[in-house]
Amino acid sequence: MSTDTDILRLDQVGVRLRTAGGSAQILRDVSFSVGRGEIVALAGESGSGKSTALLAVLRLLAPGARISGSIVVDGQDIAPLRGRRLRDFRARTARMVFQDPWRALHPMHSIGRQLVESARAADPSLSRSAARDLSGDMLSRVGIPDPGARLNSHPHEVSGGQLQRVVIAMALVASPSLLLCDEPTTALDVTTQAQILELLQELNRDLGISIALATHDLDVIADIADKLVVMYAGAVSEEGPTAQVMARPEHPYTWSLLHAAPGQHPGERLRAIEGRPPSPLTVITGCPFLPRCEHRRGVCETAPLTPVPVTDQPDRRSSCVRVTAGTAQPRERTSG
Amino acid sequence: MLTYLVRRLALIVFVAVGVSTLLFVLVRLSGDAAALMAPADASPEVIASTRARFGLDQPLAVQYLNTVTANFTLDFGQSFMFSLPASQMVFERLGPSLWIVLPPLVISLLGALSIGIYASLRPSRLSGRSLMVVTFLFDGVPYFWLAMLLVLVFSINLQWLPATGNAGFSALVIPWTVLSIYGLATLSRLTRGQLLDAFTEGHVITARSKGLSPARVLLLHALPTALPPVLAWLGIQFSLMFSALLILEPLLNYNGLGALLVGSVSNRDFPVIQASVFSLAVLITVMNILMDTIVRTVDPRLRTKAAH
Hints:
The structure holds 2 protein chains of 2 kinds. By secondary structure, chain A is α/β, with parallel strands linked by helices.
């Protein structure tokens, strides 16, 4: 794992948040990387920590959140960034696309004003009119018809799918090297979802922009992500090339997640995952998925949290001790 | 925007008719004005002639119609106590009352913005919290008690300020202070709360994610969404301050609308009561419409909704 080939690398990242209920461990020893030009998907249920991981990259977590471990973006450790340098990093290097485009845009400012602001945050030498031209170009690049008129629109006058394109354009005017997408299609209807994903894939291909994409919907990423990082209870449970992970999950949680997704096994019964993830307020020993796992054994209670390489598959990692110990794989088991 | 303004103006008319009606009923319910105005030992003939002179002998329906239509031309009749048109008496007192209310309104808005912004940027720090404790105390202190305390300390003990009267600027210091604190308490807590909410809003997080400076995030992104409820409350605060004048003006012997209204209630000077309350109601409605219009101008979402 060379730093030069990775645009983003998280190493043993932990996020601790003080809440009314006590200290919450939102992320536990999370490590993964996004190579240059790659699309990496973070998958997991709500509360699995995937959004937190993305927000941590931009250091946009709630005040009082403690980040441990190291986050390196484009060769730069972001931990010591403060003030002006942190803002420049956010403005130029990594940009965020949020879940709900209606909430992500300023309701009182025109789309043009918000795009110009975004472009000039990244490049202050840009004149207002140059930034406006760039914004118009970028709107047409993301497939907005009549971009000149759209610049004068306000967010509430634009449909959800179009608005998410606007949000993406707002990130692109900064020509960032990394795009962080936090459930970019969840708030949209199904047909629009596909279009947005296509757009992301196209931008990745044509502009070479690297993308980290959080989602709870495996259908969403099956076709576009190069790599899949499955998260559970704030920790990475499995990681590997998307096609391989989806064809042969090496962690019982991934298996359950795949069988809970409607598109993955047509004709089969959907299987809900029994139980709930552990609260971030509790101290977890052993495998966090243990209480919900159909294949638990004694060794699971002392299993390490971090995934280790899977035997004979160097690209893949899993935190399931049964898999890494070379025992029967979960997909071969049927539930009793 | 035009339909909006027309609708708002219709609201003023509606409020004016409502207030006239309410006043008419309340005033008639409070007793026989003619009997009260006439001397204690007056003969029935004298009372009857008084009644006729003020039109109080006509059927109630006629009196009501006359009152409402006259109110719209700002004709409230002659004061029972003074031989002056009631409206003239009210307008003479309106200026001093606005002069006592408007500066504190501006001071409390500016103060609330400063305190609210400061406290919202340091929600868990001691300085931010102690500011909120202070405003909480202000919120709990009755304004009339504060006025009496200030008079006791600064007028009676220290003799720095006049205790009462309309004697120039120094007489205004105490009422201005009292009303500013009165307005500041609620407004600054509201501003802080609205801002803390705004900081967690998606578009404000987006603004930070774009790498904008803290000042830009605060002034252009967080504050505009935090401000509408604050401005709406400012309109309400205006009416609260005016109602405080009913106590403060007699207390400080200040010749404003509040003192006039209280005086005419105890004198049963119906035309003056009607003229004062009517003007106050219209004034407060106009103030609230003004605040609404400002909010609407700032927020394009509301403008489009109105068009539908």
